[in-house]
């Protein structure tokens, strides 16, 4: 375990400081971990995180406790919170759980999605493709990609399943997908195929396409984190 501490200058800021809940802090730190900006063994000081998010130390500690319950961080007595170790399989497991739930919702949606919802889905898809091609700002691309998936999930009319998916999706923030090398290219191909399957009421095909679409990000993310040296110690220990 390393003893690297994080200073305020080493953390990305989150726009205009404002009061936020512990869940917002958890989401911010979760993204730092999954993106590889902080690595297993790094200690997480509350002060720089509070400064980056724009909150006091209390919600930061509460947010870190939430992440401790999820296995992202560990509380070391008298020393503070440290980023917990996670493996390549841990990353793939998150994608697997998300992919299976999203695929089931997509298959159900294909059977009952309305004409209006299909038209909205196509409109969102075209706007998303245009935004990607024109290299629009990240927030716009993320918002449109999220709306595409949200529309499908709502069309499934399976509230409980959608809530379960949302709890898993929290572990891979929407904006993070834009940072995975190659994922935007995959999305440009996958979304039209998913829409076509849904228009033709091919529920099994739609489900499989959605599952493959989400799982494609798993190996891409693992490769990206390997480049960033997240598992460098593993390589050294087996050399």
UniProtKB/TrEMBL annotation:
Keyword DNA-binding: yes
SUPFAM superfamilies linked: GntR ligand-binding domain-like, Winged helix' DNA-binding domain
Highest classification ranks of the organism: Bacteria, Bacillati, Actinomycetota, Actinomycetes, Mycobacteriales
Pfam families: FCD, GntR
Any GO MF annotation of the entry: DNA binding
Keyword entries, A-Z: DNA-binding, Transcription, Transcription regulation
Annotated protein name in UniProt: Putative GntR family transcriptional regulator
Organism: Gordonia rhizosphera NBRC 16068
Keyword Transcription regulation annotated: yes
């Amino acid at each position: 375990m390393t003893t690297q501490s994080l200073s305020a200058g080493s953390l990305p800021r989150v726009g205009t400081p404002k009061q936020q809940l512990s869940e917002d802090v958890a989401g911010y730190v979760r993204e730092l971990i999954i993106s590889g900006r902080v690595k297993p063994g790094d200690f997480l000081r509350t002060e720089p995180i509070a400064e980056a998010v724009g909150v006091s130390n209390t919600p930061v500690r509460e947010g870190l406790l939430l992440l401790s319950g999820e296995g992202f961080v560990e509380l070391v007595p008298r020393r503070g919170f440290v980023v917990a170790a996670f493996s390549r399989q841990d990353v793939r497991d998150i994608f697997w759980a998300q992919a299976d739930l999203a695929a089931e919702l997509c298959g159900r949606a294909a059977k009952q999605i309305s004409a209006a919802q299909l038209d909205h889905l196509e409109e969102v898809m075209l706007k998303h493709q245009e935004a990607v091609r024109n290299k629009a700002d990240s927030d716009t691309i993320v918002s449109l990609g999220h709306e595409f998936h949200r529309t499908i999930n709502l069309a499934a009319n399976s509230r409980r399943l959608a809530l379960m998916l949302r709890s898993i999706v929290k572990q891979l923030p929407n904006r993070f997908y834009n940072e995975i090398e190659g994922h935007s290219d995959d999305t440009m191909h996958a979304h039209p195929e998913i829409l076509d399957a849904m228009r033709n009421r091919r529920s099994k095909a739609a489900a499989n396409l959605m599952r493959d679409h989400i799982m494609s990000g798993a190996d891409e993310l693992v490769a990206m984190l390997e480049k960033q040296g997240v598992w460098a110690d593993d390589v050294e220990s087996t050399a």
